[in-house]
Amino acid sequence: MPPLPAAPSAATLPGSTAGAAQPASAAAVDAQAAPRRHVSVTLVAGEPLAVLRAVEGEASVAAALLIAGQPLQTLALPPAAGSGGWVTACAAGAVRWLGYGSASELRIARAQAGTAAPLTAASAELGEPIDASDVARDRVILLCTEQLARVLYVDQAKALRQITCSASECSAPLTLAAVVQQLSAVQRQDVTLVSFYEGPLAPTIKLLRLDAAGKPLGPAVVAGSCWEPLGGLCGASTLVGDAQRVALLTRDGPDLLALESVNTGRSWGVLSGFQQRAPTSSGSDPMQQHRLRKGLEE
Question: What values do phi and psi take at 231, rounded to 5?
Fold first, then answer.
């Protein structure tokens, strides 16, 4: 979220005639006395409505959970060292898991029944992990059930790591992949599904399954064919799902490619129930030629 705008300058000085302009020197003093502060906020699902807020100070990021009610309840959280504040959250049942931090520190807390308990603080060179314009570019993802929370993050060295938390403690960071350009993830019971690609020179989409402890259930597998120049299951991907299935989505130029799994990622097939565009009758149509080259039509 961009910095909040500074408050407008007062029109008059105390004791001065109404409408008199404020001297430029006084306005400069006011600007120095009240510097802009970067504020990050996110809504936290559940009842009652809550907001997780982080305010960047001179050398730390102060965070708090604001719970709607009469009066408003504010649960202060331990500050994160450094600058570059960010927040993320996940709710399951009556439990709210809170992730926040700075460019150099990641913190996790658990909130329930009007109280918040800090669980861990980990040093991590994150840079700017939350993208204000595109959630698909986020490099920190917080997933949860009522029993556990899992944080997946890509650090400045592009390593993919994970931290798993129970109600009382969190694991040490575990490296899942050495180089990751973009990732997506979903939680299904105790299993986490992760899709990622390594970068422009290795654009093939890979899939990982993690157990309840956050450890891989086998090596990363290739989601499908990726041709050169880029075509097929390559580059940025998105995982979405409901109680019955999980879908893996990516783009091939103007086309949407989609796979689905109905067994928490153990196997994948073509997305069912998806309405496809009827092919054109002319084989000279440029889009149909493109699809024929990519093997998307016969």
Answer: -170, 150
> Residue 80 pLDDT > 90, yes or no?
yes
- Parse the chain into domains and list their residue ranges: 37-180
pLDDT digits (tens, 9 = 90+) for 210-259: 999 999 999 999 998 898 676 889 999 999 988 889 999 998 888 889 99
Give the pLDDT of residue 9: 36
Check residue 126 and give left, alpha or beta (phi > 0: left; psi -120 to 50: alpha). alpha
Q: What is the pLDDT of residues 150-182, one digit of tens each?
A: 999 999 999 999 999 999 999 999 999 999 999
Q: What is the mean pLDDT of residues 40-48?
A: 93
Phi, psi of 85 (to 5 degrees): -65, 150
Closest by Cα among 40, 70, 71 to 55: 40
Closest CA to 111 of 135, 133, 87: 87
Closest by CA to 152, choosing from 188, 198, 197, 192, is 192
DSSP string of the chain, one letter each residue: -PPPPPPPPPSS-TTSPTTPPPPHHHHHHHHHHS----EEEEEE-SSS-EEEEEEE-SSEEEEEEEE-SSSPEEEEEEEEESS--EEEEEEETTEEEEEEE-SSEEEEEEEETTEEEEEEEEE---SS-S-SS-GGG-SEEEEE-SS-EEEEEE-TT--EEEEEE-SS-BPPPEEEES--SEEEEEEETTEEEEEEE-BTTB-B-EEEEE-TTS-BSSS-EE-S-EETTTEESBS-EEEEE-SS-EEEEEEETTEEEEEEESSTTSS-EEPTTPPPPPPPS-TT-HHHHHHHHTTS--
Report the mean per-residue pLDDT for the chain: 84
